[in-house]
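*** Residues and shapes ***
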Amino acid sequence: MRNIRLLIEYEGTQYAGWQWQKNQKTIQETLSKAVERVVQEPVKMYGSSRTDSGVHALGQVANFKTTSAIPPEQLIRAINFYLPHDITVKDAADVMESFHARYDAQSKIYRYTLLNDWIRTSLNRNFCHVCGLLLNTDKMLDAAQYLIGTHDFTSFTTRALQERNRIRTIKRLEIAKEGKYILFTVEADGFLYNMVRTMVGTLIEVGRGKIMTENVRDILAARNRNLAGPTAPAKGLCLIEVKY
């Protein structure tokens, strides 16, 4: 039995997220069906991160086990043949039988793209959130420092009661301007449901002066979702890399 690791890129616009769901099109289901057509047997696909509806990925990692002898290079071409153009397998490799895409991950890197302009974009409309308000990125950077480290992120998840352990470690949270775009890059050992999008929504409120910089520390300590900012739209979020 072989264990195959896949590196996958996808646009999540037309999908109800990664995880298989009843009566909804998902990345996991679409990918699994394509793989099964190639290897000619049922497979169980494991993903490194359960990206939400509308969220994209440049570096999603998945693995499945198979008795097929098809070489990795040929697997890439064959699987992509059966996939729609908004999902692409970028790499395939044989790995140890014990490898698990989700449980072996050491950290994940997400990037949120914000277009800070009052004029919308057409070409990039599915990959960024447009905010026409004047934002103070220096204040946003200062506020972001309170979120770095190991904390209880109950205030930054919309499903606190469904998460037994709400402790996560943010290794870095960077905010950079590229022209009219503001890029939020977050690396952590794991993320709660809507955690990145809620942090971004809160930092936007800091940037526009609705939340004071030092109040982010208090919001974090309060463990109360109602005190944080709104959840930023899914289309601005992209899984960049998973580290092992």
